[in-house]
Specification:
By secondary structure, this protein is α+β, with helices and mostly antiparallel strands. Helix content is about 25%, strand content about 30%. Strand 1 and strand 2 form a beta hairpin.
């Protein structure tokens, strides 16, 4: 029998079991499509009641981590993201869903701001900006195509960093003393372009949701303008202005 750690104050047993199962998924011991042990088996394994097991499984199911099939059992779901805010960084949103974020840089260039980007960044047309294009992944599965624009004058030599592994916000905080604090986001529905379909493994024309986010310092200086494109049938968004901390 596997014994779970001694309960910490105010940490319910069902939550500890959820975390144990999530850990097995994150470490690859349980993969998408794998069948979980039955409730009686999990009850014996963790040394708790079936009611506790049922509560843990219900929570994981509501998060989209697992799903049940009548007469078949409970299975690990493909990585799905239920509540993307559109405000925080992609990495923060993904971690909040209990998944592991990563990135693959498609292109990182400097270019003159066109009228649309200049307006979003509150800079002059033609001012140099960075354009960072990345495929964003959750548990190594592509879930978003993201294009971020940042003024070069705020973070010179930003292109010396490898954003396949580095966190953009961590670099801004640690190397440039720029602290993302507020964000505004707009959401629209559209169809996947050939480029987006290619990067996200979708069919051309499938529905996507696009979040346009402007990120600000605590004094409301624009830091970045980000266009994040998600597979439309997999996400729920929340909109408005939110405090994202520093």
């Amino acid at each position: 029998m596997m014994v779970i750690p001694h309960p910490q104050p105010f940490t319910p047993l069902y939550y500890q079991i959820e975390q144990q199962i999530l850990e097995e998924i994150h470490q690859g011991r349980l993969k998408p499509g794998d069948r979980l042990p039955s409730e009686p088996e999990l009850s014996r394994r963790f040394g708790v009641s079936r009611i506790t097991i049922r509560r843990a499984l219900k929570d994981l199911s509501q998060q989209g981590i697992i799903y049940s099939r009548q007469g078949k059992g409970t299975f690990v779901a493909q990585a799905r993201i239920r509540e993307i805010s559109g405000f925080r960084s992609f990495s923060d949103d993904i971690r909040a869903r209990g998944l592991t974020p990563s990135s693959k840089v498609v292109e990182f260039t400097r270019l003159p701001a066109d009228e649309g980007v200049a307006q979003r960044l509150n800079v002059e047309v033609g001012e140099p900006v960075y354009c960072l294009q990345r495929v964003r992944l959750a548990n190594d599965q592509p879930v978003a195509f993201e294009i971020a624009y940042l003024p070069v004058r705020l973070c010179p030599d930003l292109d010396r960093f490898d954003f396949n592994t580095a966190s953009l916000y961590a670099v801004l905080r640690e190397h440039y003393r720029i602290f993302p604090t507020w964000a505004e986001a707009e959401i629209e529905a559209s169809a996947a372009s050939p480029e987006v379909a290619h990067h996200l493994g979708m069919k051309i024309g499938e529905p996507v949701l696009t979040a346009y986010r402007q990120t600000y310092t605590e004094r409301f200086e624009v830091i970045e303008f980000v266009k994040s494109i998600y597979c439309g049938k997999r996400f729920t968004f929340y909109v408005g202005r939110q405090y994202i901390g520093n």
